Amino acid sequence: MKNKTKMRKTTIELTEEQYFFLKEKSLTLQKQRKHYSIVSIIRNLIEADRQAFKPSNAKGVNNA
């Protein structure tokens, strides 16, 4: 049996400032980790930000 991984496709809208920040950050990280693609680095940065936001957001929702 093949290992099936559920994948989700997400589209986000970014301002030009956000885009250039992510691009610069990812280029810097890519120089450190040459085998990583810029897309995977951006994906990881966004996911890390989401995870950092979730706990604080969830507390606010529960306290509302």
Q: Helix segment count? A: 2
Please state the overall shape, judged from the principal axes of the Cα atoms. Answer: globular
Portion of residues in beta strands equals: under 5%
Number of strands: 0
First-residue to last-residue Cα separation? 46 Å
| Low-pLDDT ranges | none
The percentage helix is 55-70%
Would you give an account of this structure?
The protein has 64 residues and is an all-alpha fold. It has a domain at 23-63. It is 67% helix and 0% strand. It has two helices and no strands. It has helices at 16-32, 38-63. It is globular.
Task: List the topology elements.
Blueprint: H1 16-32, H2 38-63
Summarize this structure briefly:
This protein has helices at residues 16-32, 38-63. The protein is an all-alpha fold and 64 residues long.
Distinctive features:
64 residues; mainly alpha; globular
